[in-house]
Amino acid sequence: MTPDALNRLVAQLAKLPGIGEKTAQRLAFHVLRSPPDFAKGLAAALTEVVDKVRLCPRCFSLHDGPADTRCGFCTDARRDDKVLCVVENISDQLALERTKEFKGRYHVLHGVLSPLEGVGPDQLRIRELLLRLEDSPIEELIVATNPDVEGEATALYLTKLLKPLGLRVTRLAQGIPMGGDLEYADQATLARALSARREL
Amino acid sequence: MRLLSLTCQRFRNLSEVTLAPSPHTTVAVGENGQGKTNLLEALYFLATLKPLRAGRLSELVQFGAVSAKVTGRFLLSGAEREIAVEVVPGGRTALVDGKRAASLESYFGGVSVVAFTPDDLAVVKGGPDGRRAFLDRSVFNRFPAYLEESREYARALKSRNRLLKDNAPVSHLQAWDATLARVGARLWARRRQVVGEVAPRARDAFARIGRTEEGATFSYAPSHLPHVDFAASDEAQLQQALGLALDVRLRRDLERGFTSVGPHADDLELALGQHAARQYASQGQARALVLAWKVAEIENLEASNGFLPLLLLDDVSSELDPERNAFLMGYLAERGAQTFLTTTDAHLVQRAVGPDTVWYRVSGGQVSRREA
Question: Side-chain half-sphere of A168: how many Cα atoms within 13 Å?
Fold first, then answer.
């Protein structure tokens, strides 16, 4: 008989994405074998993350400041107020941020339109985006949703909504990855890259 | 291309089977319900990643088992490759030489298969959906990328139909139109090309086996697309035309709750002389039309790939009259393609048999070698 406390830990860990029952058990044993400080640190980190990290009321990215304040992306004076990049989720934002190329502001939708999963415009942070556009000097809006069926539909929806406001709406280019080999590109990508070719 | 060996693990009622097929004809003999067709289905699934009959992938897994796996060793342009597909909870994994296939094209590179089942014989008299699926199998054989493209289309279509049913705002609905138009035009262009290639060959084949005065025609054109010259339009024009048609029909679509124009609403039209085959063809003529199409497809794939596809015939002989069966069996023997036949009666396939034919007996999910 394994102790109930251990069973409870395994059950909780197994709820994490990508973690099965066996892995959960291995992780639990690891915690048990490690010095007690490790478990205390882990527990504190877990509690802290839910207590302190919230969504920025402006861009809906992550923020750990006091409530009613804006996140670093929104308050950094070095960033360009005229360009706004709309992303599906926070991990997409972080991917763009890692390039160190983009110096504008962000807006996180927290999803894409997906009627099959019951996600419509009201379930995304689109109303907040429109409100935000009213009081900021944005000139260009970059739609950086994924190039899949749902991402495309979301991009199109935003374009139809925002173009009439006189904004410049752009979409991330699609095509051959850098350092990629034409030979290994799949047909769909190659066809898109061909139709979006540019003058040299 | 040649299949050197086939292994099925926990696939439907086949617990563990390894076959060493003939370079030409391999025959599986057995009573109905013993697992003959499962053997062909395993091979079809391996070569196309699509089930032949089952609606869901999970139906391919043996009752009580968690996963199923089909592995084939192929000789492809002189090199031996192992391709495998595993059905696991929630999906399937394609492997090339033991490694996860990076893309479907790398997986399909060089393998092609044409299947001929009793269900195919019903398409002439059946509904348009059956003929679309029939045509799509041919398109997919010719263009493996069609698998992903038709999935993308189906997803956009389902989303739009859901919104139509829910009476969603037009602004939200129209967000899906661009994808539907782009991918729909691609599907149209692919189907048009395949029908263009296969139809003349099928007409000739029918002239040989139809025993009918009138010639057969196989044609395809989008429904509800007036004012568009389908044959002469390029993909960009088709995309524009479909986008427009979606707009024009939006009110009607909202009333009915589904999208009424696009590749999903079309039909492969079969005719004898001036008459639609669906109403006019006899049972024998209907089967000859399907047979002619399959023969044409085999020839067309040989012309485009440079090698013959693998042929899978599931108990077709018992469904054809003796003369047409003799034609088919003679045709197979003469083409020399690697062929898998199932039958309840070994006599029916006698004309397709050669000195190197390999025979298997299938009984209660067990597969064993047998002498001719």
Answer: 8
| pLDDT tier, B105 (very low <50, low <70, confident <90, very high otherwise) | low
- A114 Cβ under 8 Å from any chain B Cβ: yes
Each residue's pLDDT tens digit, B188-205 = 999 999 999 999 999 999
Domains identified in chain B, total number? 2
Class of CATH domain A4-52 = mainly alpha
In a domain, B347, yes or no: yes
- The ipTM value here is 0.72
Q: Could you give the count of Cα atoms lying within 13 Å of A92 in the half-sphere of its Cβ?
A: 20
- pLDDT, tens digit, 9 for 90 and up, residues A34-85: 999 999 999 999 999 998 888 999 999 999 888 888 998 999 999 999 999 9
Nearest to B118 by CA among B312, B314, B283: B314
**CATH number, domain A62-199:** 3.40.1360.10
Chain A: closest CA distance from residue B156 (Å): 6
Rg for chain B, CA atoms, rounded: 22
At residue B192, φ and ψ (nearest 5 deg) are -60, -45
* Domain-embedded: residue B117: no
Residue B47 amino acid letter? A
Contacting residues of A for B148, CB less than 8 Å apart = 188
Q: Are residues B203 and B346 in the same domain?
A: no
**Reported pTM:** 0.81
Q: Indicate which of B158, B171, B176, B237 best probes the interface with A, i.e. most A CBs within 10 Å of its own CB.
A: B176
Question: Please, how many CA atoms are within 13 Å of residue B250, restricted to the half-sphere of its CB?
Answer: 18
Give chain A positions within 8 Å (CB) of B156: 149, 153
